[in-house]
Every structure is written in C-alpha cells, then in structure tokens.
Design goal:
The complex is a heterodimer of chains A (426) and B (326).
Chain A: E1 11-12, H1 23-35, H2 42-53, H3 59-76, E2 109-115, E3 138-141, E4 147-151, E5 156-160, E6 166-171, E7 179-182, E8 186-191, E9 197-202, E10 207-212, E11 220-226, E12 229-234, E13 238-249, E14 257-265, E15 268-269, E16 276-283, E17 287-295, E18 302-308, E19 318-326, E20 332-338, E21 349-356, E22 378-382, E23 394-395, E24 401-406, E25 410-416, H4 419-424
Parallel strand pairs in A: 10-14
Antiparallel strand pairs in A: 1-2, 2-25, 3-4, 4-5, 5-6, 7-8, 8-9, 9-10, 11-12, 12-13, 13-14, 15-16, 16-17, 17-18, 19-20, 20-21, 21-22, 23-24, 24-25
Chain B: H1 10-17, E1 36-37, H2 38-48, H3 72-79, H4 84-87, H5 104-108, E2 114-116, E3 128-132, E4 137-145, E5 151-155, E6 164-167, E7 175-179, E8 182-183, E9 188-190, E10 203-204, E11 208-210, E12 221-224, E13 232-235, E14 243-250, E15 261-267, E16 270-276, E17 286-293, E18 303-307, E19 315-317, E20 319-324
Parallel strand pairs in B: 1-8
Antiparallel strand pairs in B: 2-7, 3-4, 3-7, 4-5, 5-6, 9-20, 10-13, 11-12, 12-19, 13-18, 14-17, 14-20, 15-16, 15-18
Helix pairs in contact in B: 2-3
Classes of the chains: A mainly beta (426), B mainly beta (326).
Chain lengths: 426, 326
C-alpha cells in the first residue's frame, strides 16, 4: 500500500492498495456477483474506487499482485466485462441513489505513520510466508487524548501525545499481548492466548501489577478500562469486570500476579464513568438489537433502561458487527462490516459506522439509543490494511474515529470524524 | 507448508504473468477426497489447540499420534484430513523430493479438492478463509459466528504462537472456501475415529477400514478383531452448549461381531460403562443413553470409547451422534 506524504498531521489521507491496478481486471467479474444483491449500487462503488485508486505501478508488480486475486475471482464468478457494463436482467443496471448513502468512504486525516522496525518510534511487522501477517494489534485513546499503540511484535507499548508525536515506549512482560485498554491513569494489556495474563501499567511505564485470567467459556473479544478496573468481553456477548482476588498466582515469568474472578456487567461500557453499558446483538435476518443498562458502579448491579433496533448501515446488508462504542455524547457508534465487500477487492468501503444519537431521556434520567432514528449519520471506511492490526478502527472518548492502517511505509493512524462533526470544526 | 522449491523462481513469475495458478494441477484421480462431517473438522481443530506453530513439511506427520504443531495450511490439511496421497509431489511421479503440495495459496486459489464460496455469509463450521498475495498467505478454519456474527476461527498464526481458537477480524483479502465431500448435517456426528496427526490419538490398536458389510455411515467403517491387548477407538466432539445429550452409536452387524462390546462414556459427571451387541441393530443409530456434557472439547469428560479388548468377536467403530436434549 502507498500513502501520501506522511509529513504533517491533518493532511487528507486515502490509503492506496498495491493491488489497486488489478481492479480493472477484477471489477468485471465482481460486478455480476455484487449486483445480484438488490442493495448494491455498482456504479457508485466501483466508479468511485476505480478512479480513486488508479495509480501507475511497475508492470511486474501489477502482474504479481493481480494474479492470485484474478484466479480466485475467475473461479467464483464468470467475467462479464468492464465497470459500468450492463448487469444481467437490467441493461442499465440498478439506479444509483446517491442521496441515500454517503458518496464515498471517509478519507480522514493522517495523524502519524510509525515506520516498521524495532527502534525508537518504530513498530514491528511480522510477515510469515505461511501465517498471519500482523502489525500492532491494538490502539487505544485516553480521555485526555494520549494514545497508546500495542506493538505486539516487539512486545511493547508505544506512547503518542494527542498530536501523534511519539513520547516513549515500554516493554510489556507478556508473550502474546493482543488487547489494550487505557484511561488517564492506567494501561491494561491482555494476553489471552499464551500467558493468559492481564498486565497493568502506568503511563510512565511502571508495571503496577498483573492478574491471571480465570477459565473462560469462550474467546475474548474486547478489553475495556473502567473506574472499577479492567473488564473483558466474551464472544461479543457477556462483559465482565476482572476483579482481583488478592491471592497470589504462580507464573513462570513476568510480574507478581493475583488471581481474578469475573463479575458481570450489563454489557459494553459506553461511558467512561461506567454509568451506562450496552449489550448489542446481531444476526443476519434479525438485524441489530441494543439493550441499554444503567449500572450501579458500587454494586455493579445493572438495570435495563431501554431496548431497541437502531438502523445501522441503512440500506446495506451487514456481514457482522465490528465494534460498539460510546460516542462521547451519550450515543453509540455501531460499526458493521458490509456483505457487499465479499469479493476480496481491497480499497473498497466495507465498514459502515453509524452513530446512533441519544434518544429521549427516560424516567430515570438515562438516555437510550433512538431506535427509530432514520437519519443517523453513517460514515464509510475502507478496508485496506496490509496486515492484521486488531480492530479496524477505534472510537476515542471524544467520539473521533481512529483507523489503524498497515502500509508499506509503516503503521499509520488515520483520524475520521462524522460529517456533522466536520461542519462545526473551524 | 513450504511451497515446492521448483516453483519458487522464474517459473512462478512467468506463470503469474500469464495469470496461471502457481500450483501443480491435481490429477483427476486424486480429486476424490474422503467424506467427513463438519463436527469432525472442528474436533480435529480442537485437538490441536495449544500446540506451537511449526512451519514447513517437517511438522506434517500424517497418521501418527506423535505429531507436533503445524503451520496454518498444515492445520487445515490435517483438520480436513486431506489424504497423504494427495499431499506429496513424489507420489504422483512429478517430483522425487517430498514437499507438501498445498500452501495457503492453493487454498486461496482453489487448486485442490475444495471450492470457492460466493459469499462469506455462506460460511459454516469447518469451512476456511484464505488469503494470499503470492509471497505470503494465511488460512484459518471457520468455527462459528458469535453474538455479532463475527467469525471465531481456528488458526496457527505464526512462529512462537500456539494454535488457537480466537476471534479475528478478517479483512477483505480473506476469501471463503469449502472442502469437497462434506457430509452436510445439522447434527453432531463423528465418523470413523482416526489416528490424529496432532495432539494425540483417537485410536489405539490396529483397526482397519472396511466396506464389507452395508449400513455404515460415510465412506466406510473401522473394525478390530477381539484381542487381549489394548485396542480402543474414541470419539470426542466439541459440544456447543453444556447440557444433556442423547448419544447414539452406529455399526455394521454380522454374526462374527462382538455380542457385548464394551463402551465407556466420559461425561461431566464421571464415566459410565455400557455394552453393545453388534451382531444385531446394524445400520441404525443405536441409543446408548442420555448423558451430561460440558460445552467445549475435553476427552476426559466428553467422549465415547468402544473397546475391542476382551471382546468375543469383531468390534466395529463406525460413527457416533450426539443430540441435545432438554
């Protein structure tokens, strides 16, 4: 992938894929399959992306990159022609209703690019010939704007200030650190696969302690920092506070460790004070369902305040949800991966983030997602990372969306804002 | 698995430029692949959890219970039970040097007994997601969707990492593929136990495959003559939820079979012992009983074993089925 000049934060940014030239070979095969969906608008997506990503690259590079994808595409769908060709059954193709959907993926602004490596200000990239290509596997933003990057390959944390300048790094005593959550005081790093430990650090790099994960029913899907301590999410379903038992646990390496027990929360924390949580579910055909809870921070008892089915990614089919976060204003940002993106072409908008505004206050003074909001702002993101970087975006406590992207030059953080937020910015 | 050396060079570039696949064509005679159920694929993946990633052909030890970890494509080959005769160049006379035939690229480009799915929405347990840029690639086994329909996968990520079951965001470069000859059923059915190539064994003693008597499930069944030596065959599924399950066993009957073959059920409440008369009731799902099991995969408290040891005739190990009850 190529990026525009990384110098200077705030510049407009669009990730460009190495495979972009292959698009002209592939769109014909892809259009047929994609147009089969009544919700697909081929002219809009492919026209915009084909024009946007076209850039000259060496011939050899183009051929090498295009071959595997072309072979796969050919195996899946017969080639039908060039972009804009008529679609079977509809000579003119489906009508393009650009008013019903944002016209393009958010470009965002480049905050910083950290070069690949293991030196100061660098982050690691692992690229096995047979295995997961991965870079930093997590990114987190504190309420005060500081940023931490979990440099999993180098097993360390890299600290950035709010402007994206590197301020330092700290080693993490975990074999496979994968999840990261922060607040203004603490950083929590979780290795749920190898050591099965959660390490707690200060922002100055001091290791505060560690907890051993108890036995879990399923896989870990999230880690959150709360005023009561770290909490984990299991299979995008139950969320639990990791409550230290105080009993020492023997480990083969690393810090002094205590055991931990799970104490259930109502759902994902969506406010930094742990006052509200949300439990969200999604199934194809059933849509998105949100249950909101008010949480007593002392007893951790949760009481449901509302339930609804917000419109997420209006007009598009969802493959699965990606993340659910508070937007800093009492609402939610619900991210989904779209089924339209199934043909494997990089550089297309495949993530839809819908901000569900806070609805009317309930009798208990707790706001809830507005289930009937038809004009919830939606932002599209592309899916262009050359390596696994954990969740494809992170919502900061102030509602900004940070997108990590692994490119040829390094690990970039792109900052996006919902359209209405941009209007009020100077 | 490491790509055949002869293909890594100028030839590869030439083929790439021509838009051809990098992998050698699979002879039609080798295109057939034994049937298996999705529950079997998952059970084999579960048996590998915790083993360390190991790159390359050395880790591929088919039909031995002494295997070590594998890489991502090796994990798929083992869980999909791709026969040894499909794997090595030497055995079709194309190459005298033993190299595995399949890498993640071959899964990606469908140059084997598997095919592309038109949509990731069609994924079922035991299917795979593969990516390849020609120089590196990855393949994971789809286990299930979670409460967000987000994929949970089995994978061997890389050096220094163990084979795991994990939630993983998979970008657009990961394309869905499906093994040929999958016995589609919504039930938890495990066909013939086989010696697992990783993580231990499902079988002890010399069992042989047969199709002599009708009524078997899948392609064949396994049989063992009565013996005083240790000889057993075991099925360990991954139970999706904790609870009670009706357990059924299947065999092919005959007059030379054991009339009281010992069966042990390892449940979450302990071990139960039953016996089955395999001279009758062949070709049906015979109800062994209703037993409690915990969610997950654990041979110690969630498996069924049949013994040829001490039997009074041939013992058949064909298939076992688990049906959740209230």
């Amino acid at each position: 992938m190529r990026q525009r000049s990384p110098s200077g934060s705030g510049r407009r940014f669009r990730a460009r894929g190495r495979v972009a030239p292959a698009l002209s070979l592939l769109v014909g095969a892809s259009v047929c399959a994609l147009a089969a969906s009544a919700l697909f608008v081929p002219g809009f997506v492919f026209g915009a992306e084909a024009a946007e990503v076209a850039e000259p690259v060496a011939v050899a590079e183009t051929a090498a990159a295009a071959e595997p994808m072309a072979a796969a595409e050919a195996a899946e769908q017969p080639a039908t022609g060039e972009p804009g060709d008529a679609v079977e059954g509809d000579p003119d193709g489906p009508a393009v209703d650009e008013t019903s959907w944002p016209p393009a993926a958010s470009e965002g602004a480049l905050l910083v690019t950290l070069p690949w490596g293991s030196g100061a200000g660098e982050v690691g990239l692992a690229k096995p010939t047979e295995g997961l290509v991965r870079g930093p596997e997590a990114l987190a933003v504190a309420p005060d704007g500081r940023i931490a990057v979990l440099d999993s390959v180098n097993r360390r944390l890299v600290y950035l200030d709010a402007a994206g300048a590197v301020t330092g790094n700290t080693g993490v005593p975990l074999a496979e650190p994968r999840f990261l959550a922060v607040d203004d005081k603490r950083l929590y790093v979780l290795d749920c696969d190898s050591d099965r430990l959660l390490a707690t650090l200060d922002w100055d790099g001091t290791l505060v302690g560690a907890m051993a994960l108890p036995e879990l029913d399923d896989v870990v899907t999230g880690l959150f920092a709360t005023p009561r301590g770290p909490s984990i999410e299991i299979a995008h379903d139950g969320v639990f506070l990791l409550h230290a038992t105080g009993r020492r646990v023997a480990t083969t390496a690393g810090p002094a460790t205590t055991g931990a027990v799970l104490r259930p929360l109502g759902g994902r924390p969506i406010t930094t004070d742990l006052g509200r949580t949300a439990k969200v579910s999604f199934a194809p055909g059933a849509g998105v369902r949100v249950k909101s809870f008010r949480l007593d921070k002392d007893s951790l008892s949760a009481s449901q305040t509302s339930e609804g089915s917000p419109v997420v990614a209006p007009g598009r089919a969802i493959e699965h949800l990606v993340s659910v976060d508070g937007d800093g204003r009492g609402g939610l940002v619900i991210g989904a991966r779209l089924t339209d993106a199934e043909q494997g072409v990089r550089g297309r908008a495949v993530l839809a983030l819908t901000r569900v505004a806070a609805g009317a206050a309930t009798s208990r003074g707790v706001t809830a997602p507005d289930a009937d909001s038809a004009d919830s702002p939606t932002m599209l993101l592309t899916d262009t990372s050359l390596a696994y970087v954990g969740q494809p975006y992170v919502v900061a406590p102030d509602g900004r969306v940070l997108q990590p992207v692994a490119g040829e030059d390094g690990y970039s953080i792109i900052v996006h804002a919902f359209p209405e937020a941009e209007e009020v910015q100077p | 698995m490491k790509r055949t050396a002869v293909l890594v060079g100028g030839l590869a570039l030439v083929l790439a430029g021509l838009g051809a696949t990098l992998s050698p064509a699979v002879p039609a005679a080798q295109a057939a692949i034994p049937t298996m159920t999705r529950s079997e694929i998952v059970a084999r993946a579960e048996s590998a959890l915790g083993l360390m990633y190991k790159w390359g052909r050395e880790s591929w030890v088919p039909n031995l219970g002494t295997g070590v970890g594998t890489d991502c494509s090796g994990l798929t080959l083992k869980c999909w039970e791709v026969p040894r005769t499909m794997l090595y160049q030497e055995e079709d006379g194309e190459n005298a040097t033993i190299y595995p035939r399949y890498t993640s690229h071959e899964f990606y480009s469908c140059s084997g007994p598997w095919s592309a799915l038109s949509s990731r929405s069609l994924l079922k347990e035991g299917d795979i997601l593969a990516c390849s840029d020609g120089s590196s690639g990855h393949v994971v086994i789809y286990a299930s969707g979670d409460a967000w329909n987000s994929p949970i996968v089995y994978e061997a990520p890389g050096f220094g990492q163990a084979i795991r079951r994990a939630s993983r965001y998979l970008g657009s470069e990961y394309l869905p593929r499906r093994r040929s000859s999958v016995l589609e059923t919504s039930e938890i059915i495990l066909d013939n136990p086989t010696a697992k190539s990783i993580g231990g064994s499902d079988i002890s003693g010399n069992w042989t495959r047969s199709t002599s008597n009708p009524g078997y499930y899948g392609d064949n069944y396994q049989t063992r003559a009565a013996t005083s030596a240790t000889a057993w065959a075991r099925w360990t599924p991954r139970f999706p939820t904790t609870g009670y399950y009706n357990v059924y066993m299947r065999w092919t009957s005959g007059t030379n079979r054991a009339s009281g073959a010992k069966v042990t059920v390892n449940s979450r409440l302990g071990q139960y012992t039953r016996s089955v008369n395999q001279r009758i009731n062949g070709g049906t799902w015979y109800l062994l009983g209703r037993y409690p099991f915990n969610a997950g995969y654990a041979t110690g408290n969630g498996s069924i074993t049949i013994w040829a040891t001490g039997a009074n005739g041939y013992v058949v190990a064909d298939a076992v089925k688990f049906v959740r009850t209230r």
